[in-house]
Design brief:
174 residues
Amino acid sequence: TGAPKVHGWLTGPTTYNLGSGSPDPSLPVDKFTMRATGLVNIPTAGSWFFGGVGDDGVRVVIDDRVMVDTWFEPGVVKNSGPQTMTAGWHRISIEYKEDAGNASFDVSWLPPGGSWAYIPNANLKPDLGLVTSTTTNNPTGAGMVTSTTGYADPIGGQATSTVTDSGGLNLTST
């Protein structure tokens, strides 16, 4: 309960086997949960299926729709029914819980006319909701003002620079 103990990126396709370990040395090997949020790219529109299994539970949510939920059924493979998806980037959340013993989970998809596969890393990217650019009306009435913010550590969300362009001046503050 409470605030996350560890922040980081998950890399690779959506299959993880931690064995009898934990995702981070600061976490116990049992009784932990993980959540990965970001975006998933659906390459083609159509009827998709999503599947998952977790030791001890996994939940997959895409665009606020629960696709897979084995939270109370450890080791059970669950597949969604057909889901009509548009091509492009969609919000995804993968939650995992480890109660005891080995720790692993898999999340897969079945594209239209394709075969079951783990969701490839190339189709996943983080989305932390950090605003990187805004454009507003210039209060003086002379055109638009664009502000761009850079982040050295997007997980922590601490801005490292801000550039404000009101008419091509590219003013920078750090």
